């Protein structure tokens, strides 16, 4: 999702939805009787700050029997390791860690720099900086005797799905990357579409109000870019160019009702990877799911808070991720 003024995928820049950090100390422990443990860890980065995270380790993982592992990459905005957004109790990456942990795959999820228990400064950091934080997480996993260094992957959601190929380009030994609700076209165009799409489907606006707001979009984006280093970097990057340089097996998923990273982006991402010669590309559009992979027949972010409980990631999407990853991380 997006960060105050930098929300490309959920249009957080317009204040429609902002990431929320829970006021109470979050519970990152493993569920009762789970076949894995949840260990609080500290990850040192090349920039000098330390990231706080949780490593879920399948029971029995050891130096003699190491397991595969993946790192979860959050979307835009100052996110905690669960990618908690204040929409019910939706914690996407906690669900991902649980499903993969039950399949024998370890998961490292970390608070963004300057967020939750992590050090460093969030403001001013770019997508490239966040990619380096994820690479620090990979280095940490390689230092753990319970983890197979040759069986690592990454899972990115929203902006994280743009960052994941950036990481894979510099980490060619990764065995798999999963892109959830990402984009292929230049984010500048995607943001313009997202904002326009919101206005065009806002029944409260008159035709004149809608036309005026749409006409003001380019100027609003340029003003935001001038004051925000992250947004300037993000909106001028070229995801397709990076994708063409990545040969790591990739799974591309988007919800059919995603109104931010629209389904057409799936085919564009698939084409970019294949144009670069990637031999293992799987792409799917999942019916009835929104940008958060929650069942939602509307899909517009301004209505997320109206979703009926329980608000959870779709089990079918989670199983698809696990089914695809398992053979590639063996």
Describe the protein in words:
This protein is an alpha/beta fold. The chain has one domain (12-328): 3-Layer(aba) Sandwich (Rossmann fold). Helices cover 34% and strands 18% of the residues. It has helices spanning 92-101, 127-143, 159-170, 187-200, 207-215, 217-227, 229-236, 239-244, 264-275, 315-328, and strands at 36-44, 50-58, 67-73, 106-110, 147-157, 176-180, 250-255, 281-286. It has an eight-stranded mixed beta sheet, with helices on both faces. Helix 9 (264-275) links the parallel strand 7 and strand 8. The longest helix is centred in the middle third of the chain and has 17 residues, at 127-143.
List the helices and strands and how they pair.
Layout: E1 36-44, E2 50-58, E3 67-73, H1 92-101, E4 106-110, H2 127-143, E5 147-157, H3 159-170, E6 176-180, H4 187-200, H5 207-215, H6 217-227, H7 229-236, H8 239-244, E7 250-255, H9 264-275, E8 281-286, H10 315-328
Parallel strand pairs: 3-4, 3-5, 5-6, 6-7, 7-8
Antiparallel strand pairs: 1-2, 2-4
């Amino acid at each position: 999702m997006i960060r105050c003024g930098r929300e490309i995928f959920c249009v957080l820049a317009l204040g429609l939805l902002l990431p929320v950090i829970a006021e109470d100390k979050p519970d990152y422990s493993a569920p009762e009787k789970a076949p894995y443990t949840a260990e609080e860890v500290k990850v040192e980065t090349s920039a000098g700050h330390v990231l706080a995270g949780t490593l879920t380790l399948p029971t029995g993982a050891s130096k003699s029997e190491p397991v595969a592992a993946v790192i979860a990459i959050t979307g835009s905005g100052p996110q905690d390791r669960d990618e908690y957004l204040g929409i019910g109790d939706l914690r996407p990456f906690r669900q991902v860690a649980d499903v993969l942990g039950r399949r024998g795959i370890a998961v490292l999820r970390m608070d963004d720099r300057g967020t939750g228990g992590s050090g460093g400064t969030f403001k001013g950091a770019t997508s490239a900086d966040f990619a380096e934080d994820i690479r620090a997480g990979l280095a940490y996993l390689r230092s753990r005797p319970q983890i197979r260094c040759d069986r690592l992957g990454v899972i990115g959601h929203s902006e994280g799905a743009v960052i994941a190929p950036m990481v894979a380009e510099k980490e060619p030994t990764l065995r798999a990357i999963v892109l959830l609700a990402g984009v292929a076209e230049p984010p500048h165009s995607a943001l313009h579409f997202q904002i326009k799409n919101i206005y065009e489907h806002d029944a409260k606006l008159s035709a004149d109000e809608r036309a005026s707001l749409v006409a003001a979009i380019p100027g609003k984006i340029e003003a935001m870019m001038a004051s925000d280093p992250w947004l300037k970097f993000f909106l001028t990057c070229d995801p397709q160019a990076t994708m063409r340089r990545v040969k790591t097996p990739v799974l591309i998923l988007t919800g059919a009702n995603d109104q931010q990273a629209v389904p057409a982006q799936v085919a564009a991402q698939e084409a970019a990877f294949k144009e670069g010669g990637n031999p293992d590309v799987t792409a799917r559009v999942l019916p009835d799911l929104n940008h958060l992979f929650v069942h939602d027949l509307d899909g517009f972010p301004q209505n997320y808070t109206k979703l009926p409980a329980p608000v959870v990631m779709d089990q079918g999407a989670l199983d698809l991720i696990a089914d695809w990853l398992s053979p590639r991380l063996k």
